[in-house]
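Recall from the previous chapter that SMILES is a line notation for molecules. Here it describes pyridoxal-5'-phosphate.
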Amino acid sequence: MRFYSTNRKAPEVSFKKAVFKGLPEDNGLYMPAQIPLFHEDFMASLTRHSFHDIAFAMARMIIEDEIAEADLRTIIEEAFDFEVPVRNVHDNIYVLELFHGPTLAFKDFGARFMARVMGHFLKTDQREVHILVATSGDTGSAVAQGFLGVEGIRVTLLYPKGKVSKIQEQQLTTLGQNITALEVEGTFDDCQRLVKTAFLDEELKEKINLSSANSINIARLLPQSFYYTWAYSRLMNEAEKIYFCIPSGNFGNLCGGLLAKRMGLPVAGFIAATNVNDIVPQYLESGKFAPRLSVQTISNAMDVGNPSNFARLLDLYNNDHGKIAEDIRGVSFNDEQTRSLIREVYENHAYLMCPHTAIGYGGLKNFLDDGAKGIFLSTAHPAKFKDIVDPLIEGEVEIPERLARIIEKEKHAIPMEANYADFKSWLLEKH
Ligand SMILES: *Cc1c(COP(=O)(O)O)cnc(C)c1O
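With both inputs in hand, we obtain:
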């Protein structure tokens, strides 16, 4: 499979090249040159497949023979060594829990897959790669965990000072080894700008082998399509129409679902749910894409003012706003509404959600008609947002063991202004 840039000015590349470049030189995003279609037999036998079977089949269709079958299977089995349950919450509303990985958030899917894919390619290459990651919380810890101790790879994480939860910060700053955290005086958008600028800096690229691991990396996007097919297979015999609702920030997760649909998954529709950073819901409504500065909310992993995957969303539909709006509905919730949703679902259905997940639930609840079933994606474990969740349930959310251990560790972070010149000289000094 070849991969082109959504800006159509950079040359097409192999999967390996797309993974290590991250961002094409024309500042677009990589997409597969053809989107392959599921075989009829595959769809007919879907309910009999395991999550690993589905993930392998989909990865194989896109990556083709650039990774040998046996190696790809190992990558998938090691990357997704945790459960991916679909549970009923009430009536026709289901949740796809994506938080059973090591960092308790859905970004483990993309990060663990990408880390193992890169590790696989680097084994034969014998070179060092420096990965830059801007994170609004969960990306960084997932990526860091994925790469921890992987030879030939250094990771630098940039996170906005004071804008991630205590637990998130501990996850970002306590790993050590080949992982360094920069505490940036600014917003997530500032962090993302520093990283994007570095990737376009020719002088820097001559000296350092830079690579990205954000949701813009194609190896992060692919695995985010696997679990849509899996969740669909769990419910396909019970409902005529199945909808997905995705709590969204950079829209990588939604793009994974759109990719699965283009491969032939007969999803009835998608709901894109955001916090007050509702740039995409507004676009769906008006046809106008108007990025703006992000606003801080309690669902901080979705505080994004200029969603980085928007170009992919447009590209999947040839820029046709009408077609996009046919498949995707937008909705947004403020913090007060988010809090009510957490409280309500806990009281009435004994199901506890993190603030992001609550927005996913809210997007689905008022939308479904009879005969349809809806699946909202749970993107993080509620314990990661204990400060917000505890007062709402008048109790204490239980902290899973793998999170409790991290809270005890000592923080190591390097302070950094949101200034490209400073960032660049720091990078050059390190090499
Ligand atoms: C990253 C993240 C999101 C948003 O996902 P996108 O792919 O950026 O839209 C939602 N919830 C949580 C917990 C996240 O970490």
